[in-house]
Specification:
By secondary structure, the protein is mainly α. α2 runs antiparallel to α3. The chain is elongated and about 165 Å long. The C terminus is likely disordered.
Length: about 230
Protein backbone atom coordinates (compact mmCIF):
# COMPACT_ATOMS: atom_id res chain seq x y z
CA UNK A 1 0.00 0.00 0.00
CA UNK A 2 1.37 3.39 -0.97
CA UNK A 3 1.46 6.46 1.24
CA UNK A 4 -1.80 8.31 1.89
CA UNK A 5 -2.99 11.41 3.72
CA UNK A 6 -5.73 11.30 6.39
CA UNK A 7 -7.96 14.38 6.30
CA UNK A 8 -9.81 15.22 9.49
CA UNK A 9 -13.59 15.79 8.84
CA UNK A 10 -14.99 19.27 9.27
CA UNK A 11 -17.74 18.94 11.86
CA UNK A 12 -19.05 22.43 11.25
CA UNK A 13 -19.53 21.86 7.54
CA UNK A 14 -21.27 18.53 8.21
CA UNK A 15 -23.74 20.10 10.62
CA UNK A 16 -24.56 22.84 8.15
CA UNK A 17 -25.33 20.32 5.43
CA UNK A 18 -27.51 18.28 7.78
CA UNK A 19 -29.47 21.37 8.81
CA UNK A 20 -30.03 22.36 5.16
CA UNK A 21 -31.27 18.84 4.30
CA UNK A 22 -33.62 18.79 7.32
CA UNK A 23 -35.03 22.17 6.38
CA UNK A 24 -35.71 21.00 2.82
CA UNK A 25 -37.51 17.87 4.08
CA UNK A 26 -39.64 19.96 6.45
CA UNK A 27 -40.53 22.34 3.63
CA UNK A 28 -41.54 19.37 1.44
CA UNK A 29 -43.82 17.91 4.12
CA UNK A 30 -45.44 21.28 4.73
CA UNK A 31 -46.04 21.78 1.01
CA UNK A 32 -47.70 18.33 0.77
CA UNK A 33 -50.03 19.16 3.64
CA UNK A 34 -50.95 22.49 2.12
CA UNK A 35 -51.65 21.01 -1.33
CA UNK A 36 -53.44 17.87 -0.17
CA UNK A 37 -56.64 17.32 -2.27
CA UNK A 38 -59.91 17.86 -0.47
CA UNK A 39 -62.94 15.57 -0.32
CA UNK A 40 -64.79 14.73 -3.56
CA UNK A 41 -68.41 15.84 -3.69
CA UNK A 42 -70.70 14.39 -6.40
CA UNK A 43 -74.27 15.22 -7.21
CA UNK A 44 -76.50 12.27 -6.28
CA UNK A 45 -77.95 10.54 -9.37
CA UNK A 46 -79.71 7.32 -10.20
CA UNK A 47 -77.52 4.59 -11.65
CA UNK A 48 -78.45 1.50 -13.70
CA UNK A 49 -80.77 0.85 -16.66
CA UNK A 50 -84.51 1.07 -17.11
CA UNK A 51 -85.08 -2.62 -16.30
CA UNK A 52 -85.44 -4.41 -13.05
CA UNK A 53 -83.03 -7.08 -11.84
CA UNK A 54 -85.56 -9.84 -12.56
CA UNK A 55 -85.99 -8.65 -16.14
CA UNK A 56 -82.23 -8.49 -16.62
CA UNK A 57 -81.84 -12.02 -15.21
CA UNK A 58 -84.58 -13.30 -17.49
CA UNK A 59 -83.01 -11.60 -20.50
CA UNK A 60 -79.63 -13.17 -19.68
CA UNK A 61 -81.27 -16.57 -19.36
CA UNK A 62 -82.97 -16.17 -22.76
CA UNK A 63 -79.70 -15.12 -24.39
CA UNK A 64 -77.95 -18.14 -22.88
CA UNK A 65 -80.67 -20.52 -24.10
CA UNK A 66 -80.63 -19.00 -27.59
CA UNK A 67 -76.86 -19.34 -27.68
CA UNK A 68 -77.14 -23.04 -26.78
CA UNK A 69 -79.80 -23.61 -29.44
CA UNK A 70 -77.74 -21.76 -32.02
CA UNK A 71 -74.67 -23.84 -31.24
CA UNK A 72 -76.75 -27.02 -31.46
CA UNK A 73 -78.31 -25.89 -34.72
CA UNK A 74 -74.90 -25.02 -36.18
CA UNK A 75 -73.56 -28.41 -35.14
CA UNK A 76 -76.54 -30.17 -36.78
CA UNK A 77 -76.11 -28.10 -39.94
CA UNK A 78 -72.42 -28.97 -40.04
CA UNK A 79 -73.20 -32.69 -39.65
CA UNK A 80 -75.86 -32.50 -42.39
CA UNK A 81 -73.53 -30.64 -44.74
CA UNK A 82 -70.74 -33.12 -44.06
CA UNK A 83 -73.08 -36.05 -44.66
CA UNK A 84 -74.41 -34.47 -47.87
CA UNK A 85 -70.85 -33.89 -49.09
CA UNK A 86 -69.94 -37.51 -48.33
CA UNK A 87 -73.06 -38.76 -50.16
CA UNK A 88 -72.28 -36.52 -53.12
CA UNK A 89 -68.73 -37.86 -53.20
CA UNK A 90 -70.04 -41.44 -53.08
CA UNK A 91 -72.52 -40.72 -55.90
CA UNK A 92 -69.73 -39.13 -57.92
CA UNK A 93 -67.51 -42.19 -57.45
CA UNK A 94 -70.41 -44.48 -58.37
CA UNK A 95 -71.06 -42.45 -61.52
CA UNK A 96 -67.38 -42.65 -62.46
CA UNK A 97 -67.36 -46.41 -61.89
CA UNK A 98 -70.57 -46.77 -63.90
CA UNK A 99 -69.09 -44.79 -66.79
CA UNK A 100 -65.95 -46.94 -66.68
CA UNK A 101 -68.05 -50.12 -66.71
CA UNK A 102 -70.10 -48.82 -69.64
CA UNK A 103 -66.96 -47.90 -71.56
CA UNK A 104 -65.51 -51.35 -70.88
CA UNK A 105 -68.76 -52.96 -72.03
CA UNK A 106 -68.74 -50.89 -75.23
CA UNK A 107 -65.09 -51.77 -75.80
CA UNK A 108 -65.83 -55.46 -75.23
CA UNK A 109 -68.72 -55.36 -77.71
CA UNK A 110 -66.59 -53.57 -80.26
CA UNK A 111 -63.85 -56.15 -79.88
CA UNK A 112 -66.45 -58.91 -80.21
CA UNK A 113 -67.82 -57.30 -83.38
CA UNK A 114 -64.33 -56.89 -84.78
CA UNK A 115 -63.59 -60.53 -84.03
CA UNK A 116 -66.80 -61.57 -85.78
CA UNK A 117 -65.96 -59.36 -88.74
CA UNK A 118 -62.50 -60.88 -88.98
CA UNK A 119 -63.99 -64.37 -88.74
CA UNK A 120 -66.59 -63.52 -91.36
CA UNK A 121 -63.93 -62.05 -93.65
CA UNK A 122 -61.81 -65.16 -93.19
CA UNK A 123 -64.78 -67.36 -94.07
CA UNK A 124 -65.54 -65.19 -97.09
CA UNK A 125 -61.91 -65.38 -98.21
CA UNK A 126 -61.86 -69.16 -97.94
CA UNK A 127 -65.23 -69.44 -99.71
CA UNK A 128 -64.09 -67.14 -102.52
CA UNK A 129 -60.86 -69.09 -102.82
CA UNK A 130 -62.84 -72.31 -103.12
CA UNK A 131 -65.20 -70.80 -105.68
CA UNK A 132 -62.27 -69.41 -107.67
CA UNK A 133 -60.70 -72.85 -107.76
CA UNK A 134 -64.02 -74.22 -108.98
CA UNK A 135 -64.29 -71.47 -111.61
CA UNK A 136 -60.92 -72.38 -113.08
CA UNK A 137 -62.21 -75.80 -114.12
CA UNK A 138 -65.45 -74.37 -115.69
CA UNK A 139 -65.88 -73.00 -119.26
CA UNK A 140 -66.15 -69.29 -119.97
CA UNK A 141 -69.48 -67.51 -120.08
CA UNK A 142 -69.43 -67.13 -123.89
CA UNK A 143 -69.01 -70.87 -124.35
CA UNK A 144 -72.08 -71.48 -122.21
CA UNK A 145 -74.43 -69.57 -124.54
CA UNK A 146 -76.10 -72.63 -126.02
CA UNK A 147 -79.71 -73.60 -126.30
CA UNK A 148 -79.49 -76.36 -123.77
CA UNK A 149 -76.84 -75.49 -121.16
CA UNK A 150 -74.91 -78.41 -119.80
CA UNK A 151 -74.03 -79.27 -116.22
CA UNK A 152 -70.89 -77.05 -116.34
CA UNK A 153 -72.97 -73.93 -117.12
CA UNK A 154 -75.41 -74.79 -114.37
CA UNK A 155 -72.56 -75.17 -111.86
CA UNK A 156 -71.07 -71.82 -112.92
CA UNK A 157 -74.45 -70.07 -112.50
CA UNK A 158 -74.85 -71.59 -109.08
CA UNK A 159 -71.39 -70.49 -107.99
CA UNK A 160 -72.00 -66.98 -109.35
CA UNK A 161 -75.36 -66.75 -107.57
CA UNK A 162 -73.74 -68.06 -104.38
CA UNK A 163 -71.05 -65.36 -104.60
CA UNK A 164 -73.66 -62.65 -105.06
CA UNK A 165 -75.68 -63.98 -102.10
CA UNK A 166 -72.56 -64.00 -99.93
CA UNK A 167 -71.70 -60.46 -100.99
CA UNK A 168 -75.22 -59.23 -100.26
CA UNK A 169 -75.21 -61.02 -96.90
CA UNK A 170 -71.87 -59.43 -96.05
CA UNK A 171 -73.12 -55.97 -97.01
CA UNK A 172 -76.28 -56.48 -94.97
CA UNK A 173 -74.29 -57.57 -91.90
CA UNK A 174 -71.93 -54.63 -92.19
CA UNK A 175 -74.89 -52.25 -92.44
CA UNK A 176 -76.50 -53.84 -89.38
CA UNK A 177 -73.24 -53.51 -87.46
CA UNK A 178 -72.99 -49.83 -88.39
CA UNK A 179 -76.58 -49.21 -87.30
CA UNK A 180 -75.96 -51.03 -84.01
CA UNK A 181 -72.85 -48.94 -83.36
CA UNK A 182 -74.82 -45.79 -84.17
CA UNK A 183 -77.62 -46.78 -81.78
CA UNK A 184 -75.12 -47.57 -79.03
CA UNK A 185 -73.42 -44.20 -79.48
CA UNK A 186 -76.79 -42.40 -79.33
CA UNK A 187 -77.80 -44.39 -76.23
CA UNK A 188 -74.47 -43.57 -74.54
CA UNK A 189 -74.88 -39.87 -75.33
CA UNK A 190 -78.46 -39.91 -74.01
CA UNK A 191 -77.32 -41.59 -70.76
CA UNK A 192 -74.53 -39.05 -70.28
CA UNK A 193 -76.97 -36.16 -70.80
CA UNK A 194 -79.46 -37.70 -68.39
CA UNK A 195 -76.79 -38.22 -65.72
CA UNK A 196 -75.60 -34.63 -66.16
CA UNK A 197 -79.19 -33.37 -65.77
CA UNK A 198 -79.66 -35.51 -62.65
CA UNK A 199 -76.46 -34.15 -61.12
CA UNK A 200 -77.52 -30.59 -61.96
CA UNK A 201 -80.97 -31.12 -60.40
CA UNK A 202 -79.43 -32.66 -57.26
CA UNK A 203 -77.03 -29.72 -56.93
CA UNK A 204 -79.88 -27.20 -57.36
CA UNK A 205 -82.00 -29.05 -54.81
CA UNK A 206 -79.16 -29.03 -52.28
CA UNK A 207 -78.56 -25.32 -52.94
CA UNK A 208 -82.26 -24.56 -52.35
CA UNK A 209 -82.19 -26.56 -49.12
CA UNK A 210 -79.17 -24.63 -47.85
CA UNK A 211 -80.75 -21.30 -48.82
CA UNK A 212 -84.03 -22.21 -47.10
CA UNK A 213 -82.17 -23.23 -43.94
CA UNK A 214 -80.25 -19.94 -43.97
CA UNK A 215 -83.49 -17.95 -44.42
CA UNK A 216 -85.10 -19.94 -41.60
CA UNK A 217 -82.27 -19.03 -39.26
CA UNK A 218 -82.42 -15.41 -40.38
CA UNK A 219 -86.19 -15.29 -39.80
CA UNK A 220 -85.77 -16.86 -36.37
CA UNK A 221 -83.15 -14.26 -35.41
CA UNK A 222 -85.10 -11.24 -36.67
CA UNK A 223 -88.37 -12.40 -35.00
CA UNK A 224 -87.37 -14.16 -31.75
CA UNK A 225 -90.84 -13.79 -30.17
CA UNK A 226 -92.72 -15.33 -33.13
CA UNK A 227 -93.31 -19.03 -33.58
CA UNK A 228 -90.51 -20.72 -35.51
CA UNK A 229 -91.79 -21.82 -38.95
CA UNK A 230 -89.49 -24.27 -40.77
CA UNK A 231 -89.47 -24.05 -44.52
CA UNK A 232 -89.93 -20.28 -44.64
CA UNK A 233 -88.67 -18.87 -47.95
Amino acid sequence: VGPYVLVTPNETRRKQLQQIAKKELDDLERWKKEHRPGPVTLVPQRLGGNQSEAQVRQSQQMILMQSKYQKKHKREEYIKAKKAAEEAEILKKKAIQREKAERLEVKRRQEEMQRREMLFEDQMYKTNELLNRLDKGLPKSDSCQIANPGPEATAWKRSHAYKQALQEDENRRLEEMKQEQRRKAELMEFKQKQEEENRTKAHQKEQRRVNNAFLDRLQNKTQPNNTYQPGYT
